[in-house]
Design a protein that fits this description.
Chain lengths: ~260, ~325
């Protein structure tokens, strides 16, 4: 079995006080080892909820109603919370869009990276701090000793995204879920962050789910792509196929939009 | 920071000036004067005596001159003497402070130590039986008028069961008790007033904390904290709780004047010799000097409370401490 992650018939719904709204309706997808898979789709199509469901960190209003999620052969949806907790942040890691919002405003970024290290490894506070500093250097942040002591609001969006990536490197991840990691960044920063992720992926050999609404980015990074539309996967395949012969109208629209932009 | 504090303190002065002018005008506009009662008691008072009385209290001069005289004394921190009994106003206020302060501080401690856990637990288990029950209780506590609860509790614990004293701050034989007996006696007298004056705040605060906590729990950084592999407990208490407590700083700052303000209703119901009761009587007697002193006290405390809250906020929230400048 060379699928690292396999999602089968996943259904997720949002529960309001009165009605239930389906967010994801029976999707199946697979990620092989060492592969970058893209998920493309408009906002609200269920990309993010799907990825949050993988490690069961959905907001309390959303709930998985059916399906299985196999990771290294185990169903994560049936796994005891305690066991799953050790997969979160070590084997399966996330980076999100708008990193600044995803960092605790009251803690220094150094403390937040060190917290993750302490969580998964036995070491002293001092060693954790030291390692955090090394990681900041690894994600190409200048003057890591100083940045360690900064709060998220003092850093730019790009720098905070590097901090998030430093979190990811606290362990040796098997699967990186990158949820529009470059949304709201300027083009230069976007390029740097993408290169950083891409180089780390080559170096460490993890698999990656890369979510974007930008088909151009997906085309550059990924081998395969899933197209999501209104909670369903409407098309999947190698990028070359999708570009050569888009079948679903939504995919056609995405491809056309991309071609028009690049012309 | 020091610069900021000094600027704020200087800013208090014109505000205080405005507040005293307005309160001085209002209290003099109200019908009746300090002399009214004395004149009323002796109907056959001569107009000569009346004029002498007015001169004694400085009432024969125009209002702005009266204010000027008051201001001159106030700048030297002299609040004058009570028009009712001739004692120094500052003494009358100082002797009332311990009772009011004790009750309000105890009530605040009770409120915080009960409402924070209730708020946090109901938010973290929102929709649970605990959350629903506490919500209902909170609304009941909020809706019931506290003077009514006070009367009911007095009826139950003091009249029917006889467990607690009905009113006052000490028993008749207080002076003869040993120091531990005195303490016990005071505690006995304080239980009902402290409990009753906490009810409203208890309901409000626990609701407020629950709301803050729910809001923080839906923030992206909580999702990220979960994704790191932190346990539920760590997410709740290390990441969510401190963020939810931040707005509380402002509320606490605003409650500073209330600590000394006292409550007219409680202090009257429980016959407690506190500031609220003193103020009430001062207003009834048109005891201008005493009223003005209490108004100034309240105003200064309010402004200092605000200032303290702002400073404390900067201390606990790095976004304010370091400004918004990104590198």
């Amino acid at each position: 079995m060379n699928n690292l992650l396999e999602i089968k018939n996943l259904e997720i719904e949002f529960r309001g006080p009165k009605k239930r709204i389906p967010a994801v309706e029976g999707i199946s997808l697979a990620v092989r080892k060492n592969e970058i898979v893209g998920i493309v789709g408009e906002s609200g199509s269920g990309k993010t909820v799907t990825t949050l469901a993988i490690t069961r960190i959905l907001p309390s209003t959303a709930q998985v109603t059916r399906g299985e999620i196999f990771f290294e052969g185990n169903d994560l949806l049936k796994m005891p919370e305690e066991e799953l907790r050790h997969i979160r942040g070590t084997k399966i890691v996330y980076i999100f869009q708008e990193a600044t919002m995803y960092l605790n405003p009251l803690l220094t970024v150094g403390a937040q990276v060190a917290e993750t290290i302490l969580l998964h490894f036995r070491c002293s506070q001092k060693e954790a701090k030291h390692k955090a500093q090394e990681l900041l250097r690894k994600v190409c942040l200048p003057r890591p000793e100083e940045i360690m002591l900064d709060y998220p609001h003092q850093l730019s969006g790009g720098m905070n995204q590097r901090i998030m990536i430093a979190h990811v490197l606290c362990s040796t991840p098997q699967l990186l879920i990158a949820d529009e990691p470059t949304a709201n960044l300027d083009l230069d920063t976007e390029e740097e962050i993408l290169n950083l992720i891409f180089n780390l992926q080559k170096e460490l050999g993890f698999s990656c789910i890369f979510i974007s609404h930008n088909l151009g980015l997906i085309k550059r990074l990924c081998q395969r792509v899933y197209v999501m539309y209104r909670g369903k996967i409407v098309e999947e395949g190698a990028l070359s196929e999708i570009f050569a012969q888009p079948i679903h109208p939504h995919t056609q629209a995405l491809v056309n939009a991309h071609l028009r932009l690049t012309e | 920071m020091l610069n900021y504090i000094i600027r704020r303190l200087i800013g208090i002065i014109p505000l205080l000036f405005g507040i005293t002018i307005i309160s001085f005008a209002i209290i003099h506009l109200a019908p009746g004067e300090p002399t009214t009662q004395q004149e009323f008691m002796t109907p056959r008072i001569s107009s000569d005596t009346r004029a002498r009385l007015a001169r004694l209290y400085d009432l024969d001069k125009p209002l702005h001159i009266q204010y000027w005289h008051w201001l001159k004394r106030f700048i030297c921190l002299d609040f004058g003497r009570s028009l009712a009994d001739g004692r120094r106003v500052i003494d009358k206020i100082l002797e009332r402070i311990p009772v009011t302060l004790t009750i309000n501080i105890l009530a605040l401690v009770l409120i915080l130590s009960v409402s924070i856990p209730i708020g946090v637990i109901s938010a973290s288990k929102s929709g649970s039986l605990f959350d629903k029950t506490s919500t209902i209780l909170v609304f009941i506590g909020f809706a019931l008028p506290s003077f009514w609860i006070a009367l009911l509790l007095m009826q139950l614990f003091s009249v029917k069961l006889g467990w607690l004293p009905i009113s006052g701050i000490k028993s008749l034989d207080f002076e003869y008790l040993s120091w531990s007996g005195k303490l016990l006696d005071l505690i006995h007298h304080l239980i009902l007033p402290v409990f009753v004056s906490s009810i409203g705040g208890l309901a409000g605060f626990s609701r407020y904390i629950r709301q803050n906590m729910l809001e923080v729990l839906s923030q992206p950084y909580i999702t990220a904290a979960k994704a790191k592999g932190l346990s539920r407990h760590q997410v709740l208490y290390r990441h969510a709780f401190p963020n939810a407590l931040l707005p509380l700083v402002t509320i606490l700052g605003l409650s500073v004047p209330g600590l000394l303000g006292g409550s007219v209703i409680f202090e009257s119901i429980f016959a407690l010799p506190g500031i609220g009761e003193l103020f009430y009587r001062a207003v009834m007697m048109r005891d201008y000097n005493l009223i003005m002193a209490e108004v100034v006290l309240g105003a200064i405390l309010t402004m200092l409370g605000n200032l303290t809250a702002d400073i404390a906020y900067a201390y606990v929230d790095p976004r304010i401490r370091y400004g918004d400048g990104s590198r």
